[in-house]
Amino acid sequence: MSSHCNESTVVHEGRVFALHRDRVTLPNGVDATLDVIRHPGAAAIVPVTEQGRVVLIRQFRYAVGGSIWEIPAGTMEPGESPLVCAQRELTEEIGFTAARWHPLGAIMPVPAYSDEIIHLYRAEALLPAKQQLDADEILDVHEFHYGEALEMIRTGKIRDAKTIAGLMMAQSGMVNPLPR
Amino acid sequence: MSSHCNESTVVHEGRVFALHRDRVTLPNGVDATLDVIRHPGAAAIVPVTEQGRVVLIRQFRYAVGGSIWEIPAGTMEPGESPLVCAQRELTEEIGFTAARWHPLGAIMPVPAYSDEIIHLYRAEALLPAKQQLDADEILDVHEFHYGEALEMIRTGKIRDAKTIAGLMMAQSGMVNPLPR
């Protein structure tokens, strides 16, 4: 099933993403004008310690008006593969490297209006490295028992979609399934 | 922890959301220019049948270039509460009403650049009603055993973040926990 783009206009070139307005003919023949975010993609990491604890960040997010719990993540730079992005962000945001990387798959956070893909990884065998935050990144690093993190989803303390998806998907294939 | 918005410019008023460019002073005193999507919010539903099957839709999404598996969902109309939106979308998109609605909480699909909140519900005791798709909505309705839907996440057949989060969160508090 495919559509045809009749005309695409760049409405805005942002620092991270662009906004396009596309006039399209949909697969059912209907014409529509659609606003679409064009995004380079991102990587996000579920870092798990030897003791089965997960590392989360409490990060200030202007768009939602405050600080929220998330897994470390970042936008892919030009020419960068998802895994390299993930490894870079793990070090920059929380000051760790990891010896074992397990790809969990890719998710679409807002398929209704953005082409953003987030590549998820579980990272284990963590080793200390040098944290290097950007000037506009405001975050604290915390560790939780995995079951406690899952409970934080249930109680609404964790509301970020990529974090919920990542914590769920990282459980599959764990060598020692973690208690909930 | 709070920020201060020094100037907000409307870059684009779209059909569903607006794009703003805000010059802000962040809680750490750093000035930044941030592109933010201002969105009215949405509701999404995990519809579960008496037999423990979940109803999913295969929907064409122009932004991601094809059809994907999702739970029924839609944007809130002016003055509409999240529950009313959910009930309206359940009927319009898949042609059911439901006698039992359980709120699962709200998630943020892209807190990095959008204020969108998606209110999730589990809907049970489904009854047939009249489907009423918009002209630009292209979707098919399917039922899956709940465990099969969870497997579709693991194999990458389901990649939509709200669907992954909804399917995970809808399991908690089920009267009869469903087999995985």
Secondary structure layout plus pairing:
The structure is a homodimer of 180-residue chains.
Chain A: E1 4-13, E2 18-25, E3 31-38, E4 42-47, E5 53-61, E6 66-70, E7 73-75, H1 82-94, E8 96-107, E9 118-128, E10 139-145, H2 146-154, H3 161-171
Parallel strand pairs in A: 4-9
Antiparallel strand pairs in A: 1-2, 2-3, 4-7, 5-6, 5-10, 8-9
Structure description:
Chain A has three helices and ten strands. The first copy, chain A, has helices at residues 82-94, 146-154, 161-171; strands at residues 4-13, 18-25, 31-38, 42-47, 53-61, 66-70, 73-75, 96-107, 118-128, 139-145. Chain A has a four-stranded mixed sheet, sandwiched between helices. A three-stranded antiparallel sheet of chain A has the order 1-2-3, with no helix packed on it. Chain A is elongated. Chains A and B meet through strand 2, strand 3, strand 6, strand 8 and helix 3 of A and strand 2, strand 3, strand 6, strand 8 and helix 3 of B.
Oligomer: homodimer
Q: What count of structural domains of chain A?
A: 2
**CATH H-level superfamily title of the largest domain in chain A:** Nucleoside Triphosphate Pyrophosphohydrolase
Order of helices and strands of chain A: EEEEEEEHEEEHH
Unreliable residue runs of chain A: none
**Count of helix runs of chain A:** 3
Secondary structure class of chain A reads: alpha+beta
Proportion of β residues of chain A? Answer: 35-45%
Shape of chain A: elongated
CATH architectural arrangement of the largest domain in chain A: Alpha-Beta Complex
Binned, the helix content of chain A reads 10-25%
Strand order of the largest sheet of chain A: 7-4-9-8
Please give the largest β-sheet of chain A.
Answer: 4 strands, mixed
Q: Could you tell me the radius of gyration of chain A in angstroms?
A: 18 Å
